[in-house]
Amino acid sequence: MRSHNFARAVLRVAARNGSVSQSPIARSTSLNVLRHTSLSYPPCIATSVAAARAFSTTRIDLKKKVKKNAFAAIEDDTDALDDDAFAVEEDDLFGSVSDSTSTSATSSTSSSSSSNSQMSRVEFTSALEQFTASLSYDLLDRGHFPALRTWRRLALQASTAEDFESLLEAAKLYRERVGSLGSESALRFAAQAVKLRLPELAVVAFGDRYTYGLEYDLGALWVVQSGLARKLGRGREEVLASAQMDGAPVVEVDLLGVLAESTPVEAGEGKAEGIKRKHELDMPLARAQLSIIDRMTLLTSLSTTLAGKTPDTVLLTYLIRAYVDTFHLTTRRSATNPLLMKVLERSDGLIGLLTRVADGSKVSAEAPRGVHLAESLQRNLVSVLGYVAARGQDGFKKDGLDPVKTLYGFMDRVDREASSKLVWRVEPLLQSQGSVSL
């Protein structure tokens, strides 16, 4: 068993002998399709793809921060929280659990959560205040470092948006005075936020990870992306409320068109009114849904700051499916709706990007406990390839790449059984539009 006293002694010696250096990590560049989303973000999530700032690139020059950063690494290593305590439920894009596997995952999550005693409001507030007080310079200078596991336990006890905001304030202070909270903390924060239907708060934290020290990995991004996708299927009021939450991207280019006020005289007044009714949208709801999808775009962009330096394939499938299923883009009515022409254009571009990224690639990370990645990816690709079939497969064949064959191959590399189910569900859609030689 490690001795904390010994660890502290080592750190004190290290602090006297020199400073800790960090190797720089090259900043990632954005791809054109994601850059053309034309979003600008408020200060709380000002990190975009083009200016994404990897947390590891920032040097910590102050002696106090160097010493405490090293201690934070030891705390990460000695953390022994049970992974079952933050298992994430993974279900269908719009909220309905679609198979027994997901149902059993839900039951497992519920039982593990019930085994952990829930703090009262007074206990949570008191524990968070104690954690914040333990970050005083007086205590830190004397070598009394707070345990990072305390913040992680509090993250699993958060039950309101205010709780999460208080946790982020504590994380900000910890980041300033001690160092990074690490990817484990990011995952636990994200899992609890998604569980409470507040994935937007995780987007804020990840969008400014230099401030909060929550160093997300692909697993954490997948968890939040699935939570945002499910949010699209919630009730109208919940979707509208999402657009009002802090950190909503500001849309510079409106993807929703406008119906012309005048209609050719020869169409007749009755027919013109029928055309207008046919293409009407609930505009406040549609714009709120686009706000959620914009957050999903931001998460996809953040994946370019990781090792791959390209958008993650799984996150892209969630993003495209969000457009397709939210606006029913596979139906003839939507395909001819003048309000959705830019949405269709955006989706076409994302299909091309997905095909290039998925060509020859593999899933480069392990899914967090409770996330059924293969099943979710299969459902996403059914929508993606259904859209390709409806729009015409030949129109997406570019640079020698066929999206159908490429995505079949990607799914096969992830899970062969799920790949067989994907082919079985997609082939009838493709046959209705034309044959595909496999």
From TrEMBL:
Region feature (Disordered): 95-117
Source organism phylogeny: Eukaryota, Fungi, Dikarya, Basidiomycota, Ustilaginomycotina
Identify this protein by name.
Answer: Uncharacterized protein
Listed Low complexity bias regions = 96-117
